[in-house]
Amino acid sequence: FYKKFPDVELRGILIYLAARFKDGESSELGVLRSLIKTAGGYGFVDYDSTASLSELQLDGRCGSRLLKRETSSFGVVDNINRNASQHLRAVLQGGDLGVMMLLLLSQMRLKILYTKAGSGTEHVKVIGNAYDDCEAVLCLLLEFLSDSSDDQASGSSTKEKFAASMPSLADLHSKYGLDAAVAWMLCRPLIRKSMFFKDDSKLTGKSSQNVMPDFLKRFAASPEMTTSCEKLLPQGAWKDLTPSMFQAFYSLSIYDILCPEERYNIEIGRLKKEVERLTILQKGGHAALGQMSALAAAAAAAGASANEVRQATAFTMVHREELDRLKRNVDQLNKDFQRQQKRCEFVTSMLESQKEDLICSEESNGTFASAFMTFCIYPRCFLSPEDSLFCAQFIKVLHRMKLPGFSTIELIDSIVNAATGSLYCMTEDEAGNLAIFLNEIWKSVNSWRYNNDAFSTELKGSPGSKLSKAYAEANNIGDHSITDGITHDDFKALYTQWHSKIGVSSIGCLASSEYMHTRAALIVLSRIVLVYPTQPKVGDKILKSLSSLQSEDNPRPDIRATAQGYCSQLTKARDEGMWKEENIAVTRARQEKEKAKAEERKKNLALQHENMKKESEAITREIGDGDRYGRDRRDDRGRFDDRGRPWGPDPRSHQQRVPPMNASAPVFTPKVGAQRELGFADRREHERRGGGQERDVYVPPNRRDGPVTRRQEEGRGERRKRSRSPDRGGDDSEHQQAKRSRGEWAPPRRSARR
User: Fold this and answer.
1) What is the crossing angle of helices 124-145 and 180-195, to 10°?
2) How many CA atoms lie within 13 A of 597 on its CB side?
3) Which of 602, 511, 498, 581 is nearest to 539 (CA)?
4) CA 125 to the chain's CA centroid
């Protein structure tokens, strides 16, 4: 509707939604979500659930907006109405309505958790879904309001209008009561704009603009910003964290630190193939025959008519528009790829220059990891899939920088402790975000555990491998880990502890009677199935815990289906060797056992087939070897003919005629004139003349049924007068009359002379 009528009035419904959000009602969240997706054209940003996001979509969310659009629906791009999108954005920008709704949605998250949960009338699953919907709509609306991709077409600055309505970071926390992570999320588009405004100026063609605009100065890095940041955390937190680390973590996004080079190349190659295909179809010729036949077959399979099939194989205006769009997207993706590569290099160099200010002490004091996890990683990790990816990649960036005092081992231990405890108190989307974060971290942990070369080159001797004295004593690790870092054997012992902690927590959630515990554990385990578990002891216990969830007695069909899917994935991962610590003898014994089971199933199928064959033969002997008409197919001597048929005529050739529906009805007999106009002879006469094939033959009027009329006699005379035959001047001779009486008369041949 909004695509067809883009100028429809929207302010009234948006004000009504704002009033409902102010009251804490989340039932109208779907209305705002549909408006932004349909009228705004931002369906590619939205998602059903974080658990349903594939690796392709997650890679696309790390890149530019065009890459995100191309990968959100696996290459299927929806058509949008730019007028409707600009109209919706203009209404939201007018009167600070959009920012007002952002603040209301941020406040409503806490109302959903504490107000509805305290009433005791809502199920925990309903509360969790409402919380997830509120978070998703908040991220969707923020993305829509801060998008400046249409500024050149509309001639206005989206960021400037957004900055004019957005309160400062300190006001969001103190005046409006927002969490530090949410306040940073709302201000992050403007903070990033102030950090990279020179790069954006070059992109828009304003390379001479080296002075920061006034509307960005409130959000730029300054002593005032540092002072406001210190008010966001307790005073005790700044003993372990530095303002530079805190600002760098919350100011950047996944776009700034990770460039999905492989995904860019794949999408560019896919679009180039589509361009080549449409170009061949446009040129036509023998090269396009294959594509035209495929298009025709697809149209015919869809039930199209002959005209529609013909149009489907032609190069129409729709194909031309699609070809132009693909060419533009190929060029734009190449530019986006080069631009993001430069952005990542710039951010890495910026962090390198700030290395001394990112950490308080060059020696691990045992408290930095817990503080960084509590005030930075944990609050941001649960906000969105992009934030969970950012948290994992930011840890990897600091580890590759070999930041002094940054203990990667202690941070991983804090992550495992937080993840195992939070499984019992999170929503479905939060479980999906945690699974994305844990999957990225555990990839590196697995590589260090089972690859000696990776451990030697990436972890051994680096600042991330050094432990604090308190942590080393608590885990019975020698003093060498404090000065030189842990060895590979030490890391194996720590890996076993972490592996067991995740396993105990997951099995406890699977065995719990609470719906959300089981659901969260299945979501997390399904995402990390390729990297966890790797030890057969824990894997076997997880498989045993899944057996009760897969039974038909389970009253929760969604849990049963998810458990069955995860069990299949886990079994496949085990058979493919993902359980790296499994004993070879145990693996071979299991394979032999599975092989024996397969052979047993094969024997059972063969025995079943043989029993069916015997039963069929017994039934045949019991009812006799007669044919379908109940007649014995053998002769008096019990013989068959050459083709296995019974002797004698086939009863199918002597089928009785079907009696008429009304036997008393009169038989229809056509009139003489109608019968004459039909022009067909009697079938017996046709067969007497030797006509074996059924075809129309000319029959003289004297042989047609019925008496000869006067007109027929006159026609004969006229034909005799017009005849040029020299036979007795065309008179009706006795010879011709005799031939007519015998039925052998035929028109005389005409002379070839003129």
Assistant:
1) 20
2) 6
3) 581
4) 25
What are 529's two structure tokens?
A: 């199935």
Q: How many CB atoms lie within 10 A of CB 658?
A: 6
Residues 293 and 18: their CA atoms lie apart, in Å, by 54
* pLDDT exceeds cutoff 90 at 139: yes
Task: Say how far apart CA 29 and CA 23 lie, in whole Å.
Answer: 13
Q: Report residue 342 CA to chain centroid gap.
A: 30
How far lies 635's CA from each of 412, 631, 646, 696, in Å?
90, 11, 7, 44
Side chain identity at 400, as an amino acid letter?
A: R
DSSP tag of 218: G
Q: In a 3-state reduction of DSSP, which class is residue 626?
A: strand
pLDDT band for position 679 (cuts 50, 70, 90): very low
Tell the residue number behind the tokens 């015998």, with chain if given. 742
Residue 535 is classified by DSSP as S
Say whether pLDDT at 637 is over 80: no
**Cβ neighbours of residue 560 closer than 8 Å, sequence gap 6 or more:** 549, 550, 551, 552, 554
Structure tokens at 159: 């960021």
pLDDT of the residue at 728: 47
Determine contact, residues 384/139, Cβ cutoff 8 Å.
yes
Report the b/e string of 59-98 with b at 16+ CB within 10 A: bbbbbbbbbbbbbbeeeebeebbeebbbbbbebbbeebbb
Report how far residue 338's alpha carbon sits from residue 618's, in angstroms, rounded to the nearest whole number: 77
Longest dimension (CA), the chain: 141
d(CA 427, CA 643): 73
Q: Is residue 712 within 8 Å of 701, Cβ to Cβ? A: yes
Helix (H, G, I), strand (E, B) or coil at 239: helix
In degrees, rounded to 5, the angle at the alpha carbon of residue 143 between the alpha carbons of residues 137 and 146 is 135
C-beta of residue 178 within 8 angstroms of C-beta of residue 172: yes
Tokens of 723: 């005849």
Query: What is the per-residue pLDDT for 48?
Result: 82
Contacts of 365 (CB under 8 A, 6+ apart): 240, 405, 468
Overall pTM > 0.85: no
At a CB cut-off of 8 Å and minimum separation 6, what does 577 contact? none
Measured distance CA(74)–CA(230) in Å, rounded: 43
Q: What is the distance of C-alpha 356 from the center of its chain?
A: 44
Residue 268: enclosing H or E segment and its boundaries?
helix 261-283
Distance CA 448, CA 488 (A): 8
Helices in 354-486 by DSSP H: which ranges?
A: 368-372, 378-381, 385-400, 408-422, 428-450, 452-454, 469-474, 480-483
Counts of helices then strands in the chain (DSSP H, E): 37, 0
Tokens linked to 610: 């043989």
**Residue type at 599 in one-letter notation:** E
Give the residue-averaged pLDDT of 274-291: 81
Write the DSSP string, 539-600.
HHHHHHHHHHHHSTT-S-HHHHHHHHHHHHHHHHHHHTT--TTS-HHHHHHHHHHHHHHHHH
Is the model's pLDDT at 474 over the cut of 80?
Answer: yes
Contact of 228 with 168, CB cutoff 8 Å:
yes
C-alpha distance from residue 164 to each of 23, 174, 204 (Å): 26, 19, 21
Nearest to 532 by CA among 449, 454, 409: 449
The tens digit of pLDDT for each residue in 188-210 reads 999 999 888 876 655 555 554 56
Q: What band does 682 get if pLDDT is binned at 50, 70 and 90?
A: low
CA distance 343 to 710: 106
- CA dist 430 and 50 (Å) reads 8
Given a contact cutoff of 8 angstroms between Cβ atoms, the answer to whether 145 and 162 are in contact is: yes
Nearest alpha-carbon partner for 432 in 394, 393, 391, 383? 383
